[in-house]
Task: structure prediction
Amino acid sequence: DAYVEPGARMVAEIPGMLPALSEPVPGCAFAPRCSLASDQCRSAPPPLKEQAAGHAAACWHSERATEVAYG
Result:
């Protein structure tokens, strides 16, 4: 069984199929199924940025994604 830290927020599920590893997409691997994806997402992979102590994300729109997922 997985352990979930008390008070932790659940991660939102991204609908759709995972991309085929044999056919890598340019840019972010999540762009084809992300509702926040932009032209930048589809053309360049995002850098990994620290969002909070011990938490990082590789997303051009990480601040917006957090707002959409958690309000």
